[in-house]
Amino acid sequence: MKLTRNKLARASGKLSLIALAVLASSFAVAQDSGWYAGANVGQSSATIDDARIRSGLVANGFTGATITDDDRSTGYKIFGGYQYNQYLAVEAGYFDLGNFGFNATTVPPGTLSGNIKLKGFNMDLVGTLPITEKFSVLGRIGANYADASDSFVGTGAVTVTNPNPSKRDTNLKVGVGLQYAFTPALAMRAEVERYRINDAVGNKGDIDLVSLGLIYRFGAKSPTPVPVAYVPPPVVVAQAPAPVYVAPPPPPPPPPPPVLPRKVSFSADSLFDFDNASVKPGGQQDLDKFAAELRGTQFDVINVTGHTDRIGSHAYNQKLSERRADAVKGYLMTSAGIAGDKIVAKGVDGAEPVTKPGDCKGTKATKALIACLQPDRRVEVEVVGTR
After folding, report:
1. What is the pTM of this model?
2. Which residues constitute the domain of residue 343?
3. Which residues pair with 152 in a beta bridge?
4. Is 235 within the bounds of a domain?
5. Domain stop point among 217, 235, 252
6. Is 325 a member of any domain?
């Protein structure tokens, strides 16, 4: 099946705008007039109209198509210009926006591939708004004379009658940018530009170029420093100094009191119900009394350590001792207003018993054994660095 030039135009699609963010940094122009030259390089982008390509293929008897796009490329420009003043310049240059294309796989079996190369010349009017001595905002409007060279290849059921159309046309070009002057002669630019392009098969669309580059200003000179007149200092006639009374030095401050740790052990049975990690009312009173004694006292840290007895598995007792230590820490934070970063809580299972080996015999959790191991079930609170 053959595709005429007009049908191929519908299949190739219309290039359109892709919104691009301006680079987030500030740049400016030189203050003096004169000639300059520079170059930018960056990413160019276009939108391939896949829906139009499919409709063109369907209109020519194809029942389906899978399309992949190549809508990004590398572009650059080389330019020169004349700066009339700090606000206005005229600039001309050569640009190459790169290559864009698509590849469509059709049903009945076949492929249609399209590619466009864009390059040309431009003439712009460039306006500059200085922000600081080195930073400025740029805006440009002008015309571009672009050479669009297309190539189309068809395989299988797809036949292309005009594989290499081309078009030269003049269209609008606009852009914005930011500039930073390293020196009066050398500056850096970041720009976003839009080129209106005729794609050589009857469609017009936009190509965007986001680029970064350098410019060099010919004959730029550093500003001459303004001479400052020398003013001699006033002559002051010295008078006889008045007598100075020197006060005796103050006595040295008394040495700080020694830093003493304080450690209190709370019975777990008074703070919690058996096999439980919620502070009960009786235990809350004990903790409130402890917190009241600390009120107005300076300290470095409070270490809260939960202990269990040896009844039960190590894993379960470890979790229970940690939960009880965390419960005491939480109560001291919420009820006593002690900062959480001043309290360190940990659990140590039954690894540090108070009872001695042989004091309490047996392994089963009988009432007698539970009562005998009561001293081991505790929460130790150590206040370190009290003053």
Report:
1. 0.50
2. 260-386
3. 114
4. no
5. 217
6. yes
Neighbours of 281 (CB within 10 A): 6
What's the token pair of residue 300? 């470095």
Ordered per-residue pLDDT tens for the chain, 387 residues = 333 333 333 433 333 333 333 333 333 333 468 999 999 999 999 988 888 888 888 888 888 789 999 999 999 999 999 999 999 999 999 999 999 999 999 998 989 999 999 999 999 999 999 999 999 999 999 999 999 999 999 998 888 888 999 999 999 999 999 999 999 999 999 999 999 999 878 788 899 999 999 999 998 776 666 666 777 787 766 676 777 777 788 888 876 555 456 788 898 889 998 888 899 988 888 888 888 888 878 888 999 999 998 888 889 989 999 999 999 999 999 888 888 898 999 999 888 898 988 888 887 888 888 889 889 899 999 999 876
Q: Please tell me whether residues 32 and 117 are part of one structural domain.
A: yes
- 97/184 same-domain check: yes
Residues 57 and 192 in one domain: yes
- Residue 197 Cα to chain centre, angstroms: 35
Q: Which residues pair with 383 in a beta bridge?
A: 262, 302
Which uninterrupted H or E stretch holds 38?
A: strand 34-45
How many other CB atoms sit within 10 Å of the CB of residue 284? 13
Residue 306: which CATH number?
3.30.1330.60
The label of the residue with tokens 């982008």 reads 45
CB 169 within 8 A of CB 146: yes
Residue 230 lies in a domain: no
Q: Report whether 161 contacts 4 (CB < 8 A).
A: yes
CB 206 within 8 A of CB 196: yes
Q: What are the structure tokens assigned to 88, written together? A: 């206005």
Same domain? For 213 and 278 the reply is: no
**232 in any annotated domain:** no
Instruction: Report the distance separating Cα 266 and Cα 235, nearest Å.
Output: 79
Q: Tally the domains of the chain.
A: 2
The answer to whether residues 207 and 264 belong to one domain is: no
In degrees and rounded to multiples of 5, residue 58 shows phi and psi of -65, -40
SS3 string of 76-101?
EEEEEEEECCCCEEEEEEEEEEEEEE
- Domain end, chosen from 186, 202, 217, is at 217
